[in-house]
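To whoever picks this up:

The nightly regression suite flagged Sulfite reductase, dissimilatory-type alpha subunit as changed. Nothing in the input moved, so I suspect the structure step. Input below, exactly as stored in the fixture:
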Amino acid sequence: THWKHGGLVGVLGYGGGVIGRYSDVGEQFPDVAHFHTMRVNQPAAWFYSSEALRSICDIWERHGSGLTNMHGSTGDLILMGTTTDQLEPTFQELTHAGFDLGGSGSAVRTPSCCVGMARCEWACFDAMKLCYEITQAYQDELHRPAFPYKFKFKFSACPNDCVASIARSDLSVIGTWKDDIQIDRDEVAKYAAAGVDIQKDVCGHCPTKCMEWDGETLSIVNRDCVRCMHCINVLPKALRP
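Regenerated output under the current build:
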């Protein structure tokens, strides 16, 4: 590859959101002599209407390459490939369409979250609400890099951590439950009758060995539970947080 950082490019009033990309063989490939990337702040949990997506794609067709990446590892909607003179017009149209740029550089990166209570029955708190509130609270730190290094927030509404907050953030917030795991014993019996080896596949994989199965009754020592979600994932109809 022949991409290089050729200096800072951006839009009026912002220090982030645009990643400058230049080719060091631009004379051979003038159409991609500069091919800047723009990061668009995604809505919480990546919910879009088809109208919103059409709007973004139409803007990018007018001002950029038309290539997108949905989504980057931070969570932003990535618009890949435009020239310096098209950055400000793109930004203005995105703003009028109700979108903002995400974070880049040594700044707070765009916070992201799982679908949370909007779609998931395991959600233990409103991850979308917290993601929105943190995004609003750190607007200045997100758009105007002033940190020695990047900083990422991610919010997962349950310990399944579908947004990979532990692996991909500096501050991860993970929802859990306060009370005991709820057991539907009739459903446990149905799983056993269907051939699920509860001793091997559930109790045997419990990291703290807080579960017991005597062939008829499943019991849990909840004070020893570390909320790993394994048992709930294996027996979703029988166990609930």
